[in-house]
TrEMBL record:
Stated name of the protein: Alpha,alpha-trehalase TreA
Keyword flag Hydrolase: yes
Source organism, top-level taxon: Bacteria
Pfam families, sorted: Trehalase
Record InterPro entries: 6-hairpin_glycosidase_sf, 6hp_glycosidase-like_sf, Glyco_hydro_37, Glyco_hydro_37_CS
Gene3D superfamilies for this protein: 1.50.10.10
Assigned keywords, A-Z: Glycosidase, Hydrolase, Signal
GO biological process, any: trehalose catabolic process
Signal peptide start and end residues: 1-18
GO molecular function list: alpha,alpha-trehalase activity
Gene: treA
Length: 530
């Protein structure tokens, strides 16, 4: 019966994906021509554009005109598509303070329920939601949890509820939560924070929330565990890996082996530099995008170069911590309806996963939690802030937590907060950059093991940097240079974005958590005491 359920689940999921064509599928030839041109500096612009008429009609006109003398591709696109407008003209009053700035930004970044537009790449959502900002005009999965932390501090609990309902809607409709609500994201998800969102909402509205969202929690879990019943030892299927001892853990995966439509030309060019078959390279690139860490030497081989990307060979420690939390959350939801037998099964799965994380990801030589390369049967040599996640979910022992705290303090803590890795590669999820969600997960995890002084010091340094940049520019940014706080963060496939949902959320949460006077913060000396 269970195997039948998984087959039906897979059929429904793939059918939902197949029914919604992406821009490349709708506009073959035209898509490649536009993305390979310089009409739009950012490949994401065209895939977010809305066709003004039926794609078949547009393609007929394109094929009739494209080879004629004087054909103007840009004019053709502008005549046939509504080009998305950048919402970056918001001007703040810096003197009014950062809290006022963020409260106003929630209104700027909020989107009304989507109107279902024919042939658009937007996956319409039924409730209002918050977007990150900048080029990110849609809801993003893992970003949203950290945005919700700030919405809670701003007493915007209705918005939080609406966003969780939107994610439940996506699970019901597509079988999982896509990277974002776009058709070209329907082949992958992102770090599974839905259980974290449900737990956050339960703190606001009560345990009934766990019962209400139990079907979606289980459905998302089945998506992540797809293929687990059939995969053989030493092999992988979709998002699951079965190790030689029979242990099943998760990895990041994308069902497509084509260039990402929103970064088409970059992927095509990068593939030319790789020795991997193009399909394998594209799948690894896409899997890294599913991780949210696009890109980082975390996913590369020892050379530290993008063409060697091997995301699908790795069992990420942070992903499996999130899966552990998902299993425990489902068990709690089942307890609410007195289904003790099924709750016990999910707790057992969580316990097995915890054992596996400690066995395969803990490195006693370095005192750090690493990703595990299931093909090479060894831990990754790259230490990253993903190693902090076992503290957040109370997986680490007290001694392991002590060693991780020492590692954070000695290796990752910089003048502006925690650096993502110690590699200066030019990739945005490496040094010298720091990111709001990773600051929060480290701080929250440290406090769970009573490393309160270190947690507060990380928060203070991060907030000091955020607020200084805000006072200079009137903006809160996607990422920050935490090594040299006078320089702007760099790396990545696009210019630095402002807005910015998760930065706003984490900042508000930390300011309130530590009762920090933002006016005095810049004058405070930075020091670490433990």
């Amino acid at each position: 019966m269970r195997r039948l359920f998984l087959v039906v689940f897979l059929f429904i999921t793939l059918s939902a994906q197949a029914q919604i064509p992406t821009p490349r599928q709708q506009f073959p030839g035209l898509f490649e021509a536009v993305q390979s041109s310089t009409i739009f500096p950012d490949n994401k612009t065209f895939v977010d554009a809305t066709p003004k008429k039926d794609p078949a009609e547009i393609m007929k006109a394109y094929n009739e005109q494209k080879d004629k003398s004087g054909f103007d591709l840009k004019a053709f696109v502008l005549a046939n598509f509504e080009i998305p407008v950048a919402h970056n003209n918001f001007q703040t009053d810096v003197g009014a303070g950062i809290r006022k700035h963020i409260d106003t930004l929630w209104q700027v970044l909020q989107r009304r329920p989507d109107e279902a537009k024919p042939f658009s790449s937007t996956l319409a959502l039924p409730n209002p939601y918050i977007v990150p900002g900048g080029r990110f005009r849609e809801i993003y999965y893992w970003d949203s949890y950290f945005t919700m932390l700030g919405l809670l501090e701003s007493h915007q609990t209705k918005v939080i509820h609406n966003m969780v309902e939107n994610f439940a809607y996506l699970i019901d409709k597509y079988g999982f939560i896509p990277n974002g609500n776009r058709s070209y994201y329907l082949t992958r998800s992102q770090p599974p924070f839905f259980a974290m969102m449900v737990n956050l909402l339960a703190k606001i509205e009560g345990e009934k929330v766990l019962v209400h969202f139990r079907p979606q929690l289980i459905k998302e879990y089945e998506y992540w565990m797809q293929g687990s019943m059939a995969v053989k030892s030493g092999d992988a299927a979709h998002r699951v890996v079965r190790l030689n001892d029979g242990t099943v853990l998760n990895r990041y995966w994308d069902e497509s082996d084509q260039p990402r439509e929103e970064s088409y030309i970059k992927d095509v060019d990068a593939a030319k530099e790789s020795t991997q078959p193009a399909a394998q390279f594209y799948q690894n690139i896409r899997a890294a995008a599913a991780s949210g860490w696009d890109f980082s030497t975390r996913w590369f081989d020892a050379s530290g170069k993008l063409p060697t990307i091997q995301t699908t060979d790795l069992i990420p420690v942070d992903l499996n911590c999130l899966m552990y939390n998902m299993e425990l959350t489902i068990a709690r939801s089942l307890n609410q309806i007195q289904n003790a037998k099924l709750a016990k099964m999910y707790r057992y799965r969580a316990a097995r996963r915890k054992e596996a994380i400690l066995k395969y990801c803990w490195n006693p030589k370095t005192g750090w939690f690493d990703d595990y390369n299931w093909k090479l049967k060894q831990q990754s040599p790259i230490e990253t802030l993903a190693g902090e996640f076992p503290l957040e979910f109370k997986i680490a022992s007290d001694e392991q937590a002590r060693l991780v705290a020492d590692g954070l303090k000695n290796n990752f803590l910089k003048p502006g907060g925690l650096v993502t890795t110690q590699n200066f590669s030019g990739q945005q999820w490496d040094a010298p950059n720091g990111w709001a969600p990773l600051q929060y997960m480290a701080i929250d995890g440290l406090e769970k093991y009573n490393y309160n002084a270190l947690a507060k010091e990380i928060a203070t340094r991060w907030l000091k940097l955020n607020i200084r940049v805000f006072r200079q520019t009137g903006k809160l940014l996607e990422k920050y240079n935490v090594v040299d706080t006078q320089l702007t963060a760099g790396g990545g496939e696009y210019p630095l974005q402002d807005g910015f949902g998760w930065t706003n959320g984490v900042l508000l949460h930390l300011v309130n958590r530590y009762h920090i006077d933002t006016e005095q913060l810049e004058k405070a000396p930075a020091e670490v005491r433990n």
